[in-house]
């Protein structure tokens, strides 16, 4: 590359020298043309001639700066001298041409004649002067405007009067003597003529001499320039050939280098191609294996989920039936031995049920499907009730079960009381299970918005290695052999603590026992005068009609028996009418002929599931009355809010007790249930007693509260609300068709206050959409949300229609 650069620079130098030489030749030709004009007598052209020669000298100087040859420098110096010499010769020629000796001869001879004053020649004269005067008057023409305007800046010519004077001088000779001068003048003129000829010949010889010198100088200068051009051309030709040879060699070397690099690149490309091909083949192989492994894992996860659902439905339902019948049987048996048998059967069924629940809880925690249910509770009462439940087990093993608390009994908190109870029961149950002597202590305390629970035992303790493994799923230590369970309790406990945003710590030494400490964030609650005892029952109509649908005959009979017990406990009579159906088709026929207050339906049935049953009921027009629907299910992948979004008023998870059935019916009918929502819980509305709850029950009283008992005003308000709902329903369908996320969020913001007021089940969904107004990207979840909103609007319209009727 460097050689090519040098060759390029040399070529530029040669080109510059060639241009300078061509300019020099051109200037010399122009100077020669001007010189010929000067020689022809145009002396004024000498300045242009001298300027051309100066330009030629400048070109020679530039050429000298571009040349590196010493011989060339000498030639250029000689050329410069010749140019100067030619300039000097031309100057002398011009001077010679301007030197007019003929005129000098005449002037010299005249001067000599004037200097000779001969008296004989002088003739006295009398001069007489005669003056002739002639005046001419001329009338000036009238001038135009523009001429007068021009003369305002230029003085006018005064041409009105013309005076002409002529003077005539007459000389009179007074001498009568004459003198003949012809001979003298002839001699003088002859001498002048001869001298003029000699002067002209001398001048011509000088001009010829200068012209000869100038011609020789031009010839010499032309030869020098031609020699210079020849030398430059030869040198340039030589250098060009040398540079061409050098470039040829450089190109040859570059071609060899490029060929070598190309060969190396080809070899390297082949090697890289082989490596990449190998890596791609491996990657494809690994990807296929990963896809197979992922597919296998997905199949396993799907199989595990199906297994969990199967366990839920096929184990929990029969166990629930067993426990339900045992509960009913226990009230009929008085023989203590039979009561003991019933208790043993109940204990085994509860143990089996606890194992199933542990598996389901672990599955829901792993899949992220476990939701929190916030409610108000008393930490003191909660832990006290847990200790009371475990006291018989401790007494049976001869252990002292202690309970200490640093918070007062009336302190109320808000949190997921069911999960907190599950955490404490898991840890406390393990402590009693693995402690053979001594005591087990449960301590509960509050510090600000943090709940502290510490469980200490005097068991065998654990090593550091065992402490690291104790929270792993399906992990059982050596001292756990022979004990009930399969190693999920503490794993579930840790995940529940993390789900609640808390911390779980363990301190243990071998032979000194263990101490588990749980720290959970909770909200401060306030006590309310509406706290009542848990044995207070809900109030129901004494002539209520209940429709029960289930394909499991045992579960069907158990639920009927529970309904009779609820009727007896709440109403004191057996006035309820319970109709049972084994198939969904029987439900449609029953609703056409009879009005029912509550519909209890199983979700998973062979011919039609509960969701399809409810949808079909909403589409029927010949139903005498739409009952409040309660879902009966053994599924654990949906919570009550999910069922409420599908139109149900409440949900009962199998197995369920009589109290849970009573609470579900109360929620469905919006009855005043006091504190009987769930066992060991307080009314969820303690902190917000007047807030509408999104439980799925539609209460239009909030819209008509200010009109009192004015039936006409109530009908007008509900009619207006129905018309607006129809418009919003059509708008929501358009949004779904156009996938317009911005319009969806705006409409959700508009619907939120009204739907909150009536207690709609889609209020959380509307709040979520309202918070996404800055995100205008449509996704599949939005489509599902719109479908849920449309279903809720149709349900609202159906309820409004019945309310107006």
Question: How does this structure look, described?
Answer:
- With 805 residues, the chain is of the alpha/beta class.
- Among the domains are: 370-524, Histidine kinase-like ATPase, C-terminal domain (Heat Shock Protein 90); 545-669, 3-Layer(aba) Sandwich (Rossmann fold); 701-804, Four Helix Bundle (Hemerythrin (Met), subunit A).
- The protein has 21 helices and 15 strands.
- The protein has helices at residues 2-39, 46-66, 70-98, 101-115, 145-151, 182-332, 336-367, 379-397, 417-433, 464-469, 489-499, 553-571, 584-593, 610-619, 640-645, 658-669, 701-704, 711-738, 741-757, 763-770, 780-804; strands spanning 125-137, 161-173, 375-377, 400-405, 413-415, 439-447, 450-457, 503-509, 513-521, 523-524, 545-549, 577-581, 598-602, 628-633, 650-653.
- The strands form four sheets. Strands 4-6-7-9-8 form a five-stranded mixed β-sheet, with helices on one face.
- Helix 12 (553-571) links the parallel strand 11 and strand 12.
- Helix 1 (2-39) packs antiparallel against helix 2 (46-66).
- The radius of gyration is 65 Å and the shape is elongated.
Give the structure's gist in a few sentences:
It is built from 21 helices and 15 strands. With 805 residues, the protein is of the alpha/beta class. It has a five-stranded mixed β-sheet, covered by helices on one side. A five-stranded parallel β-sheet has the order 12-11-13-14-15, sandwiched between helices. A three-stranded antiparallel β-sheet has the order 3-5-10.
């Amino acid at each position: 590359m460097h050689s090519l650069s040098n060759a390029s620079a040399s070529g530029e130098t040669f080109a510059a020298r060639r241009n300078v030489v061509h300019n020099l030749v051109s200037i010399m030709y122009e100077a020669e043309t001007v010189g010929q004009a000067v020689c022809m007598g145009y002396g004024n052209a000498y300045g242009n001639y001298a300027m051309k020669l100066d330009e030629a000298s400048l070109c020679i100087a530039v050429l000298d700066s571009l040349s590196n040859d010493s011989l060339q420098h000498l030639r250029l110096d000689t050329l410069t001298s010749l140019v100067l010499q030619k300039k000097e010769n031309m100057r002398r020629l011009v001077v010679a041409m301007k030197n007019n000796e003929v005129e000098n001869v005449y002037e010299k001879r005249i001067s000599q004649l004037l200097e000779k004053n001969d008296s004989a020649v002088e003739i006295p004269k009398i001069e007489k002067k005669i003056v002739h005067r002639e005046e001419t008057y001329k009338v000036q023409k009238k001038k135009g405007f523009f001429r007068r305007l021009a003369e305002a800046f230029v003085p006018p010519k005064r041409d009105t009067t013309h005076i002409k004077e002529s003077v005539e001088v007459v000389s009179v000779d007074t001498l009568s003597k004459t003198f003949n001068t012809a001979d003298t003048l002839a001699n003088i003129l002859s001498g002048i003529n001869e001298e003029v000829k000699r002067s002209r010949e001398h001048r011509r010889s000088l001009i010829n001499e200068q012209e000869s010198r100038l011609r020789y100088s031009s010839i010499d200068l032309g030869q020098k320039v031609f020699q210079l051009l020849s030398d430059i051309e030869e040198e340039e030709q030589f250098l060009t050939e040398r540079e061409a040879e050098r470039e040829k060699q450089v190109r040859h070397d570059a071609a060899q280098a490029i060929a070598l690099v190309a060969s190396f690149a080809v070899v390297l490309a082949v090697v890289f191609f082989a490596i990449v091909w190998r890596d791609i083949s491996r990657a494809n192989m690994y990807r296929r294996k990963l896809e197979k492994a992922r597919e296998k894992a997905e199949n396993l996860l799907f199989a595990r989920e199906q297994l969990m659902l199967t366990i839920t439905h096929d184990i929990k339902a029969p166990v629930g039936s067993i426990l339900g019948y045992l509960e009913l049987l226990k009230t009929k048996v008085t023989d203590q031995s039979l009561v003991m048998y019933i208790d043993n059967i109940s204990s085994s069924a509860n143990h089996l049920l606890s194992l199933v629940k542990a598996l389901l809880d672990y599955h829901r925690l792993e899949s992220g499907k476990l939701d929190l249910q916030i409610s108000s509770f008393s930490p003191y009462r909660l832990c006290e009730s847990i200790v009371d439940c475990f006291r018989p087990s401790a007494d049976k093993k001869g252990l002292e079960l202690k309970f200490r608390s640093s918070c007062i009994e009336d302190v109320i908190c808000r949190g997921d009381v069911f999960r907190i109870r599950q955490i404490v029961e898991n840890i406390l149950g393990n402590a009693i299970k693995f402690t053979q002597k001594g005591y087990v202590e449960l301590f509960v305390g509050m510090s600000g918005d943090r709940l502290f629970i510490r469980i200490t035992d005097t068991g065998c303790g654990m090593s550091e290695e065992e402490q690291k493994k104790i929270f792993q799923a399906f992990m059982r230590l050596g001292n756990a052999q022979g004990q009930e369970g399969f190693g999920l309790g503490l794993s579930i406990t840790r995940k529940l603590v993390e789900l609640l945003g808390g911390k779980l710590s363990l301190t243990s030494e071998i032979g000194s026992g263990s101490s588990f400490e749980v720290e959970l964030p909770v909200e401060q609650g306030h006590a309310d005068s509406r706290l009542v005892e848990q044995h207070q029952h809900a109030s129901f109509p004494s002539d209520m009609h209940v429709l029960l649908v289930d394909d499991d005959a045992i579960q069907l009979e158990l639920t009927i028996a529970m309904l009779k017990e609820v009727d007896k406990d709440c109403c004191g009579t057996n006035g309820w009418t319970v109709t049972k159906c084994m198939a969904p088709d029987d439900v449609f026929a029953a609703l056409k002929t009879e009005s029912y207050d509550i519909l209890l339906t199983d979700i998973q049935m062979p011919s039609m599931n509960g969701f399809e049953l409810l949808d079909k009921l909403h589409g029927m027009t010949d139903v005498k009355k739409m009952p409040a629907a309660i879902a009966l299910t053994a599924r654990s992948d949906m919570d009550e809010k999910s069922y409420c979004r599908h139109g149900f008023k409440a949900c009962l998870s199998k197995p369920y007790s009589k109290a849970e059935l009573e609470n579900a019916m109360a929620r469905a009918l919006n009855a005043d249930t006091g504190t009987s929502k769930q066992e060991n819980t307080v009314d969820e509305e303690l902190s917000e007693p007047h807030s509408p709850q999104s439980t799925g029950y539609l209460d239009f009283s909030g819209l008509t509260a200010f009109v009192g008992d004015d039936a006409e005003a109530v009908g007008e308000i509900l009619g207006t609300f129905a018309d607006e709902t129809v418009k919003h329903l059509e708008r929501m369908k358009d949004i779904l068709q156009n996938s317009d996320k911005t319009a969806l969020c705006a409409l959700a913001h508009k619907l939120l206050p009204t739907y909150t007021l009536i207690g709609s089940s889609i209020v959380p969904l509307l709040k979520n959409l309202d918070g996404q107004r800055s995100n205008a990207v449509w996704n599949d979840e939005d489509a599902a949300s719109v479908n849920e909103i449309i279903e809720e609007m149709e349900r609202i319209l159906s309820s409004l229609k019945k309310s107006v009727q």
